[in-house]
Amino acid sequence: MTRDQGDRAMEELYHACYRRLVAQVYAFTTDLTEAQDVVQEAFARALARPRGLADVDNPEAWLRTVAVNVVRRRWRRRKLLDAILLRDRPVARTVEPAPGPERADLRDALAALPPSFREVVVLHYYADLPVDEVAAMLGVPTGTVKSRLSRARTALAGRLDGYRTEVTRARS
Amino acid sequence: MPDLETKLARSRSALLDEIEQPPLAVVRRRATRIRRRRSVAAGATALAVLGVIGLAARPWHQDGPPTVTATDPPAIAPVYRGGGIEIIGLSPTAVYDLDGQIAEVEFADRDNGFAAAGCAPRCPELARTTDGGLSWHEADVRPTGGGPVDLLAFPGGHWLLDGDLDRSSPDGSAWRVVNPPLAEPQAEIGPGMLLRVEQPGGQVVVWSWDRGRLGDLTTQPQLSTARWVAPAPTADGAWWVGGLVGTNPAVSVSRDSGRSWTTVTLADPPDPTDSVTVSTLGTEVYAVARDEAGQVLGIYHSADGGKTFTTTFLAGKGAAAPYTGDLVPLLDGRLLALRGNGAPSSWWVSEDDGRSFDPIPDLPAASSIRRTYAGYVVYGLFSGSWAAFSPNGTNWQKLQVN
């Protein structure tokens, strides 16, 4: 593949997958700005490879893996820093999300869920991944994902006064 | 008061709207910084390694035979790209011989699938893949008889082979013969079940992977006749059925597992409609009216999950558009269609919801696309008995079977 073809392929991949990947990474960060930064970092690392992603079977999966690893590494660093610097200080949110019509309640409620619940909800409902793919991505059985989804919906409904839950079958 | 599912769907749309996508040039600048950092680190490492080697190699001693440590470079499959579509070609590994032309390929998820050859006159064994079509082997099941067979993937990775004798498998490995129960009306589509349409009556029937045909759905869609049903529910659990109301094309959708249906009648093309299919991606819904030859008479687009449809294309009398197979809504908002052996390309995309299509150059010829449970299969690739699978219509993997 020539350099021009490689550049074009990356342009197309960036156009096709960027938003989808951001939505998936948002499951792990709960911060949209950070999710965008992490996905851009993943694309930058792909562009920095000598052959781009020409030798990768599934470029989108490669980018997702890199992005999730970046999130985890940053989280470990942050935890270490918190332990060193912020042990006795109240934890303050440094980035306040801009208020929006759907953010104020649902996404705040979502961010307050335990990570294991939040991840399945965001991956399934926001990133539009079927249950089996969520299971594969998180490395847990499909039944676990379904159970977490069900419990997460109940927890969300509890946090959102006035919203009824509707028991729906998660798509497999 | 909206339910939680609706609230989540709205929140998802709001999230996607908020995502900012900078130009790729911005990311390229970031890549340049990464490359610089790496080259500095590599330079430092190389100096350190040279120092260590200088001491460890002991050049004053006689060396033994050199040890080969490099591995062969990985075999890379050719990749065909055009218009944002990518087809990864065959790898140099062996191609499984299906003992006949590919008649049907079905995937239950991104990895697990089966390929069947036509029965002429006997049915060869099915071929099975567990790695997304990169390698295939003989399956432990073989259709019997000379009639048509239908391979059905069910939720949860279950399978049913519908032929003169039905066989089922929980995971594609071990198969057993199915003895269908006495048919009874089914109040709903239960978990793990699918719908099928029976002709000539057009009844919508519920099937289970381990018991086969269960019976007619109690509440049928309000269609004069159903002609098509989606092979799988949509992401939000909706079931779509296409058919006719009188002579008009129409679609019906159920969002409560088949207990009730909402029907929308679509604009009638000048030529008689034979079937109506539906393609969906999120809230984007495309209904397609076809003539007896499968050519397109009308395209109808809905941006609100199917509540309202706009006619984006209506063929004139005797002027059906020669697109074959299912239309594929792509993640970037375009609509993909195939023209069997079309010129200048088989691959066409629409950026205006089906009003007009432009050819994509540089992609191999193909005959049609068919939706499977887990994605799409393109047939007749390279004008031969080749097929490729894609979970999203954009990234295709040519299947190592022929």
TrEMBL record, chain A:
A biological process term (GO) from this entry: DNA-templated transcription initiation
Keyword Translocase: no
UniProt keyword Transcription regulation present: yes
UniProt keyword terms in alphabetical order: DNA-binding, Sigma factor, Transcription, Transcription regulation
Domain RNA polymerase sigma factor 70 region 4 type, first and last residues per copy: 105-156
Xref: Pfam families: Sigma70_r2, Sigma70_r4_2
SUPFAM superfamilies given in the database record: Sigma2 domain of RNA polymerase sigma factors, Sigma3 and sigma4 domains of RNA polymerase sigma factors
Record-annotated RNA polymerase sigma-70 region domain positions: 13-79
CDD domains for this protein: Sigma70_r4 (cd06171)
GO molecular function: DNA binding; sigma factor activity
PANTHER family according to UniProt: ECF RNA POLYMERASE SIGMA FACTOR SIGM, RNA POLYMERASE ECF-TYPE SIGMA FACTO
Family: Belongs to the sigma-70 factor family. ECF subfamily.
NCBIfam families: SigE-fam_strep, sigma70-ECF
Name the record gives this protein: RNA polymerase sigma factor
Originating organism: Asanoa hainanensis
Lineage summary: Bacteria, Bacillati, Actinomycetota, Actinomycetes, Micromonosporales
TrEMBL record, chain B:
Top-level taxon in the UniProt lineage: Bacteria
Parts of the chain that traverse the membrane: 39-57
Keyword Membrane attached: yes
InterPro entries per record: WD40/YVTN_repeat-like_dom_sf (IPR015943)
Keywords: Membrane, Transmembrane, Transmembrane helix
Protein name (database record): BNR/Asp-box repeat-containing protein
Classification of source organism: Bacteria, Bacillati, Actinomycetota, Actinomycetes, Micromonosporales
